[in-house]
Write a structure and sequence with these properties.
The protein is of the alpha/beta class. The chain is 32% helix and 22% strand. The strands form five sheets. Strands 1, 2, 3, 4, 5, 6, 7 and 18 form an eight-stranded mixed β-sheet that branches. Helix 1 crosses helix 5 and helix 4 crosses helix 5. The longest helix has 26 residues. It is globular and about 65 Å long. Bound molecules: 1-thioethanesulfonic acid (COM). The site of 1-thioethanesulfonic acid has 10 residues, from helix 2, helix 3, helix 4 and helix 5.
């Protein structure tokens, strides 16, 4: 029975409703039958982009319908992507502190202690319904969205979608169908014991013991560091260089890789996976990589693939005649418009970078354009971050890029090159490291064009600076820019995790700026 009236449910009511939908397979429907306007857009896919686009359109006075095959909004983020990754990275950071301080102060003796990965994964799975519930509660009760969940949308044309046997029409379609992990095409890839970040959450059956991670990007590093912090022998192999696709400054790269090795991880670059070997029960027993000296077998019982994503575009591109790119991404212009009039695409469906801001902001940009504005999604710069057992954040230019662009580059950095044991930067979450293991307390670098005095790049390893990077990225890219003098004029909340304010203030008095 379709429910088509407005429902006022509590958060717990929404959680119960999702439990029931998972159990029965039945739909969750929230429509406003008293509203007889045509939909301004149907969002096919209610992930981050669909949900934020829907909310924005609704707030602008538009009418939207959002359809998703899961019984909750928010997409893969609260289910098997970003939220579990953050849970695991939190565990990794806690465990890292416990391991360095094993048996000291109030820390337990962690010598040789393995922590159950499966228990942490199950812990996440037991709790994720709360994240699902927040999505549905907020979307319905606070944002007044219309949606049909736990139901498949069949797109018939650029204005028509069929769901649960009923046709809905709209002025526009906004597609947010996401992307899925890629499995490399090598012999043995179907063996048991091979996981992506999605499989890890959905199907982990046994405790991983000896781990090989394939990939050199964010996912490989984040999950690899988590596995290592849980006490597993962990080897990362990548066919190119670590972080090859990320705009990491060379000092940050060096600090991060050094710290991963310090924690006992093995890192292998230019070593592509060429085969996976199994035992008689069909379970992985080794990953085979190609090295300059020939094939090398790396024993493992758990192979973690972080070899990229592919947009879920094949079917929809064929149905609507959408132009796609080499990775299967739906090609869009800066207004999120596809080559088919009135059809927009957002989020992971449009290819890398596969980031939250891109999805949410893309949804908002699409919604505004559907509502008659002309709005462009500026992708020319963005702040970025990844987790190791630290938070690593960066924005703007690397030192190398700045030197190629400006004749007078000033670097404000801590610790100075090679002086790892200076306990700076230091702040909340790194205080203990700074007092006992100063070389572990983080790294920071601020890059300034000495002539204009404008900040052009910032880079940080530690904890707590990420938040500021979101605002700083916007500030340095305004026409006015953001200078070392502006920085010196700010009021720091000591001990501020990034230290940029006080370090810049120590140098800003110089008419001719000098390094620090
Ligand atoms: C966050 C999902 S888990 S959404 O971006 O709020 O929809």
């Amino acid at each position: 029975m379709l429910r088509t009236e407005r429902v006022n449910a509590t958060f717990h009511g929404r959680v119960d409703e999702i439990h029931e939908a998972f159990r029965s397979g039945g739909p969750i429907i929230q429509l406003h039958p008293e509203d007889n306007r045509e939909f301004d857009a149907i969002f096919v896919g209610g992930g981050a982009g669909g949900r934020f686009g829907s909310a924005y359109m609704r707030a602008m006075g538009g009418r939207q319908l959002t359809i998703d095959s899961w019984p909750f909004l928010g997409g893969s983020c609260p289910h098997n992507a970003c939220v579990p990754h953050h849970v695991f990275s939190d565990c990794a950071a806690e465990l890292d502190l416990m391991r360095w301080f094993s048996g000291q102060l109030f820390f337990p003796d962690m010598t040789g202690k393995q922590v159950s990965i499966k228990q942490i994964v199950d812990f996440f799975k037991d709790g994720r319904i709360g994240a699902h519930g927040i999505m549905n509660y907020q979307s319905a009760e606070q944002l007044d969205m219309e949606f049909i969940l736990n139901a498949r949308a069949m797109v018939l044309d650029a204005h028509t979608v069929e769901v649960l046997g009923q046709r809905y029409t709209a002025k526009n379609l906004i597609l947010g169908l996401g992307a899925l992990p890629i499995y490399p095409d090598v012999p043995g890839i179907d063996l048991k014991g091979i996981y992506t970040n999605v499989d890890l959450v959905e199907t982990l059956a046994e405790e991983p013991r000896q781990i090989v991670v394939v990939g050199g990007g964010k996912t490989a590093v984040e999950y690899g560091c988590f596995f290592r912090a849980c006490g597993r022998e962990t080897t990362l192999v990548t066919r190119s260089r670590m972080f090859a696709d990320l705009n990491l400054d060379h000092s940050i790269r060096e600090y991060v890789l050094r710290n991963m090795t310090l924690r006992g991880m093995t890192l292998m670059e230019s070593t592509p996976l060429v085969e996976v070997l199994g035992d008689e029960s069909g379970h992985v027993r080794a990953a085979v990589v190609e090295t300059p000296d020939g094939r090398l077998e790396l024993p493992c019982d758990f192979l973690f693939l972080a070899t990229g994503l592919r947009p879920v575009s094949d079917e929809i591109a064929q149905t609507l005649g959408l132009e796609t790119g080499p990775r299967g991404e739906v090609v869009v212009n800066s207004r999120q418009q596809t080559n088919v009039p009135n059809v927009y695409a957002i989020g992971d469906l449009t290819g890398p970078p596969y980031e939250m801001w891109r999805a949410r902001k893309g949804g908002m940009v699409a919604a505004r354009n559907c509502m008659g504005e002309e709005v462009h999604h500026d992708m020319s710069h963005y702040p970025d971050f990844l987790h190791t057992t630290y938070e690593v954040s960066w924005l703007g230019l690397t030192e190398e890029q700045a030197r190629a662009q400006y004749p007078n580059v000033i670097v404000i950095q801590m610790p100075p090159d090679g002086l790892w044991d200076i306990p700076l930067p230091v702040a909340d979450r790194t205080m203990l490291y700074a007092f006992r293991y100063p070389e572990l307390s983080g790294f920071q670098k601020c890059i300034i064009d000495g002539d204009s005095r404008r900040v052009v790049g910032m880079h940080h390893v530690g904890h707590g600076a990420k938040d500021a990077f979101q605002y700083l990225d916007w500030m340095i890219h305004t026409e006015r820019g953001f200078t070392i003098d502006d920085m010196a004029d700010l009021k720091e909340l000591f001990l501020n995790p990034d230290h940029f304010i006080q370090l810049c203030r120590l140098r800003a008095g110089h008419r001719q700026l000098i390094n620090l």
